[in-house]
Structures are given as C-alpha cells and as structure tokens.
Amino acid sequence: MIKSIKKILTNKFDMKDLGVTDVMSAIKISKTSNLLVLFQYYYIEKILKKFSKDNNSTIKTPIDVSVYLSKNIGKRRNQLEYS
Q1: Which of 2, 30, 55, 81 is deepest in the core (most CB within 10 A)?
Q2: d(Cα 47, Cα 50) in Å, to the nearest integer?
Q3: Which DSSP letter does residue 13 get?
Q4: In 10 A of CB 16, how many CB atoms?
Q5: What is the CA 78 to chain-centroid distance, rounded?
Q6: Helix (H), strand (E) at residue 41
Q7: H or E segment at 38?
Q8: Pairwise CA distance, residues 70 & 77, whole Å
Q9: In sequence order, what are the residues at sequence separation of 6 or more whose Cβ sits closer than 8 angstroms to the Cβ of residue 46?
Q10: With 0-12 CB in 10 A as exposed, 13-18 as middle and 19+ as buried, what is 45?
Q11: What is the pTM (predicted TM-score) of this model?
C-alpha cells in the first residue's frame, strides 16, 4: 500500500524517497520494536549551537527557598486550552 501511494505521489509531484525519517521539525525520532520515541534534546542542542551557547555547563536555578511546593489537588486543566 505504501509503495502504491509513493508511486501516485511521484507521478503527481517532483519528489524522491529519502528513506526512513530520523529527524522531523527538529525532533529526533527513534524507532524500537514496538514504539516510536521522540527526542527534543536534538532541537535544544541545535538552538544552543545557533547562538554559540552549546559549550556552557549546567547551573542551579535560583528559587525562593521559602516557597513550599505541593502536589496539585485542584481541578484539572484542559491541556489544549492551557497550551
């Protein structure tokens, strides 16, 4: 089925088959036997290199130590709306 779709698309558009995708929209794709894994580190590294910040070491994030963080027990938010 995939071969026939590729043939139809090739007849209609100027295209070529580049094989299995390993990076799409700056997200690295890894395939295991039963699932696909998406890695955003690839995109982050690309942006850091673009701005010459790829050789920086990690640092602690400043935080107000008097703030107590607790598990959210309130109502759930719609993820799409939140985004």
Answers
A1: 30
A2: 5
A3: S
A4: 7
A5: 21
A6: helix 41-50
A7: strand 36-39
A8: 17
A9: 26
A10: middle
A11: 0.40
